[in-house]
Amino acid sequence: MSVSPVCPRCGEQLVVRPGSAAQAWCHVHGAVTPLHHAVLLAHDAIVAVTADARVPAWVPDPMPSGWAVTGLAWGGEPGARAIVVNCAGPAPLGGSAELLLVAEEPGTGVGCGYAGLPGLDPGDVITGQSSVDVKAAGQRAPLWAVPTSDDRAAFVGEAYGVWLWLVMWPMNAAWLLAEQLELLDLRDRIYPDLPLGPPSEHLLPGS
Known about the structure:
Elements: E1 15-16, E2 24-26, E3 30-32, E4 35-37, H1 43-50, E5 58-60, E6 68-75, E7 82-90, E8 96-104, H2 110-115, E9 132-136, E10 139-146, E11 153-159, E12 162-169, E13 182-185
Parallel strand pairs: 9-13
Antiparallel strand pairs: 1-2, 2-3, 4-6, 5-13, 6-7, 7-8, 8-12, 9-10, 10-11, 11-12
Pfam family, one: DUF6758
InterPro entries: DUF6758 (IPR046646)
Protein name: Phosphotransacetylase
């Protein structure tokens, strides 16, 4: 179902401890929660990952016109401590875009890996007035802009007691947030016509 796990912070291959699926060793970052991703994205794979997940699996609801889910990754198993859902489609200002949504427990480092931050958690990035907000399962979730590389935009906040990250390529894909985005937790409902697309190029951290 998944390929060899990678480091959630840099995307490097890991040394997995025998008998343990919860922790592995990265030669750059030491002990980390291994990040797995599905070889073949299918509704059954999403159901299997979300069935015992400890964090939400967020997707836009409704999905923007022409968009599809293009990747699924999760940190730790069984009972994922982090879930990554990647979506792709037409960009608001033309061309194509990707939106990567991360829900993770503190101390996992997945969102920081995609945003290009050095630590495990956003830390004092979350200060002052929030930049935008989304609705996560009907609840307002303020998001703060994250300083990142100029090829992407990144925002972080909190929903359901865990971190919520939105990372977008290219940077101007942040216009997706011009109107309040509503998110559905796939643990609550995986609808049979959820659109699925070809694999994402940004599902690997550090890409």
